[in-house]
Each structure stands twice: as structure tokens, then as C-alpha cells.
């Protein structure tokens, strides 16, 4: 990593300014980090080239330095979809509440016709710096919200924030074979049309099917006579078709039958559908049924 001349230069500069000093190296003051020259400040984006270190500092002190409006935060949401939509693909609607530029003040935060003055907190810079752990951290000014000036009268619509919350309706394309926990990124659909929307997919369980890779398994109950004597039953496939399945005599509980090519399709491959037989045993027998079953057991040599 440090063989790159530019990255090495950044690393040496941060070391020289004390950014990698221990916790006991002395706290810095506003604009003057411990161990650094007067008025030296750090932009956290300088640490971005050093992998987890930049991520660690960013998670503690903010995403990045520099212009606080340069990078829009992504919006995350979760959406539940039916099992069949996840398996076969489709489109699902999503409604999000996102911040947009206030239509009354056009994002300035001031009432129409009001005057603006330089922010007394940041002196018009839009950012403030404070010492932390041996170096200075730059953050957006909380008074002017990074704009560098404050209105004499705040906007009556957004109350000075410059933003309003609006509902946005999107249609998400679900690829065939989508699994539970899949995250889909919608570029440019976030706040103010610049951020992204990340959608976490939650697949609802199906009352008939369950998934095993690209294969799907459906449970079909049959009675004791069907299991012993054999039968023909109708079962539905994943895409809603009906097929006739022949159950041979003597089929045991849990036996699976394969229907080729009726599973989930993804990347040019398609799985199979399996029908799992569950033999239902009656909980109670009539006297006549019990007598007949005992006679059958005795003739078959079955112990009971």
C-alpha cells in the first residue's frame, strides 16, 4: 500500500501532524492539533486511502471532510416480497419518505424576501473544526447547516432547514432467483436525486413451496390408501401450471418425486421441482375400521 508515492506522501504527512499518535500524546485545540504546526487541520478523506483506518475515523467523526454537501447519504429500506416474485422475478412498488429541496426557499432556509448575514459560529466557512485525539476534525456548522450564512427570518415551510419531506414512489425490478437478504441499489433515486437507495429484500415464506438453491420443494399430503395402493394426484408448479404425478403403490412418508426443469432459473440455469409426499395417518378409527385393520395385519404377519 505504501509503495504508492501519493499514498506514502499522505501517510507521512498525517504521521508528521500526529494523526497516528497514541491517546496519551496530548489533546489538540481548535485548529491546532497536538504535534502539528499552528492552524493545521485534517480532512478525513485523506485517510480514505488507508482502508479500514479511514473507515474507522469516518464512522467516529463523520463521513468525510471538505464540502459537507459533496456526498449525499444513501437511503436504506427493507421490502417484503412474495416467494414466487423472488423466484420468478417481477416488479414491486416501494414508497419512501425522502428529503427534497424546499420549494418555498429553494434550499436557502430563509423566508421569501428576508436578509441573510454571515453565520456567527463558523464565520461564513460553513464548517467548524475541533480538536480530537491529536488532530482537528472538520464538520458542517450546526448553526447555518453548512451554508455559511443565516437568515433574519427562517422559511415558514421548512423552518430554516432548507428541506421538506416528500413521498416518493418507486417500482423495483426483482431479478429471478432473488434470495432473502439480497440488497438492491437504485442509483440516483435517493435524497434530492443524488443519493442512492439500498433496498434489503425480505422473502416471505410460501405455504406450499420452500427453496433449496435453484430447486423448489412442495409438500403434498396423501392418505394411507393412496400410499399403499398407489394413486394419481395433481400438483401445481412454481409458475402455476398443473401436472399429474403418479404415486406408485407402497410409497413411504417423505418420498420425493422430481419434476425436471420446474425450479428457479438464474444465469441460464434452471433447477427442478420436488414433490415431497407426506402420508397422513388417521388419528381415530371406527370399530369396523379397527377390525378390518387387525385382520389385514394378521394376514400380513404384522405385529401390533
Write up this protein.
Among the domains are: about 1-65 and about 130-140, no CATH class; about 210-300, HSP40/DNAj peptide-binding domain (Sandwich). About 15% of the residues lie in helices and about 35% in strands. It contains five helices and 17 strands. Strand 10 and strand 11 form a beta hairpin. It is elongated, with a radius of gyration of 33 Å. The protein starts with a helix and ends with a helix. Mean pLDDT is about 80; it is low at about 15-70.
Per-chain topology:
Layout: H1 5-16, H2 52-61, E1 75-81, H3 83-88, E2 90-101, E3 116-118, E4 127-132, E5 135-140, E6 149-151, E7 163-174, E8 183-186, E9 197-203, E10 209-212, E11 215-223, H4 224-229, E12 231-236, E13 242-247, E14 256-259, E15 265-266, E16 269-270, E17 273-280, H5 287-300
Instruction: Specify the structural class.
Output: alpha+beta
Low-confidence runs (pLDDT<50, min 5 residues)? 17-71
CATH topological fold name of the domain at 209-300: HSP40/DNAj peptide-binding domain
- Termini gap: 75 Å
Strand order of the largest sheet: 10-11-17-14
- What would you report as the Rg, rounded to the nearest angstrom? 33 Å
Tally of helical runs? 5
Shape: elongated
Average of pLDDT: 81
Keywords:
single chain; 304 residues; HSP40/DNAj peptide-binding domain; 5 helices; 17 strands; elongated
Amino acid at each position: 500500500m505504501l509503495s504508492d508515492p501519493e499514498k506514502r506522501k499522505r501517510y507521512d504527512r498525517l504521521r508528521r501532524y500526529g494523526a497516528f499518535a497514541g491517546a496519551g500524546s496530548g489533546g489538540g485545540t481548535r485548529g491546532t492539533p497536538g504535534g502539528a504546526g499552528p492552524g493545521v487541520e485534517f480532512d478525513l478523506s485523506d485517510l480514505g486511502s488507508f482502508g479500514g483506518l479511514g473507515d474507522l475515523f469516518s464512522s467516529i467523526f463523520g463521513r468525510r471532510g471538505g464540502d459537507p454537501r459533496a456526498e449525499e447519504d444513501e437511503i436504506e429500506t427493507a421490502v417484503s416480497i412474495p416467494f414466487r416474485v423472488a423466484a420468478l422475478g417481477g416488479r414491486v412498488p416501494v414508497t419512501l419518505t425522502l428529503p427534497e429541496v424546499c420549494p418555498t426557499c429553494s434550499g436557502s432556509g430563509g423566508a421569501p424576501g428576508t436578509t441573510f448575514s454571515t453565520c456567527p459560529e463558523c464565520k461564513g466557512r460553513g464548517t467548524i473544526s475541533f480538536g480530537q485525539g491529536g488532530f482537528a476534525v472538520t464538520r458542517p456548522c450546526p448553526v447555518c447547516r453548512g451554508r455559511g450564512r443565516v437568515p433574519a427570518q427562517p422559511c415558514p415551510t421548512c423552518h430554516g432547514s432548507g428541506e421538506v419531506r416528500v413521498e416518493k414512489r418507486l417500482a423495483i425490478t426483482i431479478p429471478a432467483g432473488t434470495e432473502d437478504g439480497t440488497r438492491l441499489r437504485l442509483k440516483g433515486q435517493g435524497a434530492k436525486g443524488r443519493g442512492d437507495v439500498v433496498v434489503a429484500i425480505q422473502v416471505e415464506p410460501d405455504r406450499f413451496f420452500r427453496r433449496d438453491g435453484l430447486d423448489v420443494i412442495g409438500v403434498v399430503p396423501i392418505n394411507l390408501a393412496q400410499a399403499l395402493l398407489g394413486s394419481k394426484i395433481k400438483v401445481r408448479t412454481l409458475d402455476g401450471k398443473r401436472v399429474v404425478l403418479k404415486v406408485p403403490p407402497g410409497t413411504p412418508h417423505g418420498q420425493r418425486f422430481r419434476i425436471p426443469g420446474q425450479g428457479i432459473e438464474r444465469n441460464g440455469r434452471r433447477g427442478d421441482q420436488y414433490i415431497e409426499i407426506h402420508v397422513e395417518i388417521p388419528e381415530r378409527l371406527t370399530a369396523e375400521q379397527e377390525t378390518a385393520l387387525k385382520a389385514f395385519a394378521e394376514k400380513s404377519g404384522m405385529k401390533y
